[in-house]
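Aim 2 progress update. The chain analyzed this quarter is reproduced below.
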Amino acid sequence: MLRGAALRVTRPRVAVLTAVHAHPHADTESIIRVVREDLGEVSHQAVYDVLRALTDARLLRRIQPSGSVARYEARVGDNHHHVVCRSCGAIADVDCAVGSAPCLTAFDDHGFAIDEAEVTYWALCPACLVKDSRRSTPVEHTRGRGAARGQSGQPPEEHPR
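Predicted structure tokens:
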């Protein structure tokens, strides 16, 4: 993959690619932990630099749902979307809604040549939905899932995995 993208094959690049393939939607700190388990000591900056190079080469995709830190995935080139749990921050891939990329047709593209659409669905994951239904009274439950966003109206901050 690295050679195909005209990048030198280095141990940090291979370790980062391997980590992201094994842990889709991982944040940078999680990737650093996995890379250090593989290589030993490696600097934060080295991992950041590799993530940037791999993202620029389109070997990785960087996503950043509202209220979350950047996350990385190896699923590239298919214009898929994401569903994010408002409660725990879990992220899952969602295939394109309808049709071919970019999946959605803008009413007015203002002359832009649109080639990608990024959609984030906000929801409660199955585990949080079960927890929510166990602790909610019927009146609380009817307020809607948006209540999980907090007073700011934004999704919760980074949730440790």
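The CA atoms of residues 142 and 158 lie 26 Å apart. The longest helix spans residues 44-56. These observations will guide the mutagenesis experiments scheduled for the next reporting period.
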